[in-house]
Amino acid sequence: MLEHASADVAVAELMERHGGRLYSLGLRFCGNDDEARDLVQYTLLLAFRKWDQFEGRSDPGTWLYRIAARVCQRRHRKRAGEPRQLESLEKLLPSGDHAVVDVESTGDGPLELLEKQESRDAIENAIATLPENFRLPLVLKEIMELSVTDVAQILGVKEATVKTRLHRARLHVAKELRRHLPKKAAPPPDHSQRMCLDLLKAKQDSMDRGVEFPVAPYELCARCRSLFATLELGREACRYLGEGEIPEAAKNLILEEIRASS
Fold it and tell me: Do 20 and 66 belong to one domain?
């Protein structure tokens, strides 16, 4: 078991398992390569120094991300374009739009979407311009692929709070994606707004739990079908953003510092 390993062995293993995702977290949260490398190095070296405090009550990876989240929060500097508050739910929803994403005509999957520079920039910008208290839950849940329970424990907030912020953040990303996807004229609503909002909550809840949404697409109105497809596309695109490797130079530096301190 990893919790019984020495600090140098444990942190080297954690770096192999989670270093790439930590680097991705740094890129999405800090916004540039140098700061992302610094975040990874500081997080792993802090984990090395605090390894004797790990009691094995949680997964070592969750413990590591808790450290990383605290490092992010301490290092956070408000950047240009980062709002103090997120738009209202009414402005995030496409209910007043005259056009909807044409989900039938686009063959774009997450990989194809990210291969398009404008779409990749849109996703990156959507994440970067989220206020910190919305951005971090989204990154931890969708890019790090942690559970809502783990995100709540890492951030020290209630699960209901994580869900509220996560739901709004997903809608923000979906709104940015809609700007870059093919559209068609929106048909008149054939469901009540209340029903659409209830279905949206159920859809987001299924995404939170990682289970299949129980309502078939053909049972949804065109607006809900379009929005839900865009939410899914945004989530899958976030997962692709989480894939990657820790830069070799940063990895070697961490290992050198661990060996020097052992």
Answer: yes
